[in-house]
């Protein structure tokens, strides 16, 4: 895992390039479950995009505006079920564009923060500790988890890595 703040932000940002590469796959591939009983590729990317949107709107943006954080520990199953429903209403192209937009909102907001701002702990909507650094670290792991699933899926379809 990346060590410095800049390296972590760059690693977090790099998933936008990966999603853009996935855009070259067909709508049919995007609408295929990544494994038996699992979400489709479109569902996975939508899930990630909506988590980015949630954390941006309820935490990152609030920090930048010097407002109280409203981010809370949500019911993950309910949030994820809603993201799957959302994915059904959008095209692959729209999901790719929205993913890049939402991730870049976060990147743009946190790029250039000094180390104190990056590591400062805030109280979230549940009165628990939240820091941008811990958030980015956690979501890099989240990205890697889903990338591993996607790469395994691509292998089952015999889609080579770029």
UniProtKB/TrEMBL annotation:
What Pfam families does UniProt report for this protein, alphabetically?
DinB_2 (PF12867)
Species this protein is from? Paenibacillus illinoisensis
Q: Which residues form the DinB-like domain?
A: 21-150
Please name the Gene3D superfamilies in this protein's record.
dinb family like domain (1.20.120.450)
* SUPFAM superfamilies xrefs: DinB/YfiT-like putative metalloenzymes
Q: What is this protein called?
A: DinB family protein
For this protein, the record's InterPro entries field holds:
DinB-like (IPR024775), DinB/YfiT-like (IPR034660)
């Amino acid at each position: 895992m990346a060590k410095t703040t800049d390296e972590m932000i760059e690693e977090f940002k790099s998933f936008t390039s990966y999603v853009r590469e996935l855009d070259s796959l067909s709508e049919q591939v995007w609408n295929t479950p990544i494994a038996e009983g699992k979400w489709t590729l479109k569902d996975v990317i939508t899930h990630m995009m909506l988590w980015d949107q949630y954390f941006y709107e309820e935490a990152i943006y609030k920090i930048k505006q010097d407002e109280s954080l409203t981010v809370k520990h949500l019911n993950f199953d309910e949030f994820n079920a809603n993201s799957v429903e959302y994915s059904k209403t959008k095209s692959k192209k729209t999901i790719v564009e929205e993913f890049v937009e939402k991730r870049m909102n976060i990147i743009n907001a946190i790029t250039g923060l000094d180390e104190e701002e990056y590591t400062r702990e805030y109280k979230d909507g549940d009165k628990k500790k939240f820091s941008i650094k811990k958030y980015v670290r956690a979501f890099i792991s989240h990205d890697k988890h889903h990338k591993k699933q996607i790469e395994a899926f691509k292998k089952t379809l015999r889609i080579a890595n770029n």
